[in-house]
Design brief:
T-fold; nine-stranded mixed sheet; globular; single chain; 20 strands
Length: about 325
């Protein structure tokens, strides 16, 4: 297989890595980065001229948006329904109230804990055919993680018609990965770091991988407490459950991101509820708790490999079901 050519950038508040495998005549990785930059200009809630900013500034009523933005909103609504509201990107007003009103690094404004309120997601209307979107009165959309995953998907799904000479592509937007075509022998080797517990590796041969975590993007509140960016829609507060991080293997990155966040929100002290177990059926889900305990769910859960040191210091991989992780079955 031809060696991969790489391009990197800082977009959507995170690091982006693109690899293209194939002859030099194939598409340049930098052109993929440019496509991602275009999506950031449309989707960032921190860019005043973006389509998302225009939607958030409109207090109800339809707004015509690009096909890419309509697709992002449609997938967001679909994810909200499919996860029974555990994943909810229509809580942008809560994030602003908490103090997350600028791209990281943190702006320095100390927010406060919001009062509970119903989710406005049920009021959101998206017509993909016409590009007409109505968020409803008072609704603020935060693309966040699903924006990163959807960006990776849109870029990769739009590439094959332009990639007659290329054989494979990897797009990584801040840990939301999507791959296409031929991979290195054994797959793209990805290390999953949940910042607690042993590191885990995945050999990604197809589809997508996404991670959601409460361990990153944290900032102080005005009352002396601390907030993070994963909000539990049922309480309107940052998630305080037992889970630190969740990674999901799926066919598409937007869905992997939505399920990862839903599990992070919905995993209680007794583990996952039936909705989460059902969602994970044909996926691979790795859950790491705050005390470092790890669990796997779904048909692809065995693809997660624990990396553990031997007595002599060498690192040895073992299937999670044979190592320190426990399988959860419905």
């Amino acid at each position: 297989m031809d060696s991969a050519r790489w391009a990197t950038a800082h977009l959507m508040g995170t690091d982006v890595h693109v690899a293209v495998v194939g002859p030099d005549a194939a598409i340049e990785p930098s052109s993929v980065v440019e496509r991602l930059a275009g999506l950031e200009r449309r989707w960032s809630r921190f860019v005043p001229e973006s389509e998302v900013s225009a939607l958030n500034a409109r207090d109800g009523g339809g707004v015509l948006v690009s096909a890419d933005t309509a697709e992002l909103l449609a997938r967001s609504v679909e994810a909200w329904h499919a996860t029974a509201g555990r994943f909810d990107p229509f809580v942008g007003d809560l994030l602003v109230e908490l103090g997350y009103d600028g791209s990281f690094p943190w702006s320095g404004r100390r927010g406060r804990l919001p009062a509970p309120r119903p989710s406005p997601a049920q009021r959101v209307h998206v017509d993909v055919a016409t590009g007409l979107v109505d968020l409803g009165p008072g609704t603020r959309f935060d693309p966040g993680g699903i924006g990163k995953g959807c960006a990776a998907d849109l870029v990769v799904d739009g590439l094959p018609e332009h990639l007659a000479a290329a054989t494979g592509v990897l797009v990584n937007v801040g840990g939301d990965l999507r791959v296409w075509g031929v991979t290195p022998a054994g797959g793209w080797e990805v290390e999953v770091d949940h910042l607690v517990g042993p590191p885990v590796r995945v050999s990604l041969t197809h589809g997508a991988l996404a991670t959601s975590s409460t361990r990153r993007r944290r900032w102080p509140l005005s009352d002396g407490g601390e907030a993070h960016h994963v909000v539990d829609p049922s309480t309107c507060r940052p998630v305080t459950g037992p889970v630190a991080s969740v990674s999901v293997l799926a066919g598409e990155a937007w869905w992997a991101e939505a399920v990862a966040t839903a599990v992070l929100v919905g995993w209680g002290i007794d583990g996952p509820d039936p909705v989460l177990v059902d969602l994970s059926g044909d996926l691979g889900v790795l859950v790491t708790t705050n005390d470092g305990e790890q669990f796997v769910l779904g048909g692809r859960g065995s693809e997660f490999m624990v990396v553990a040191p031997e007595a002599d210091g060498t690192l040895v991989e073992s299937n999670v079901l044979e190592g320190s992780c426990r399988e959860v079955v419905g």
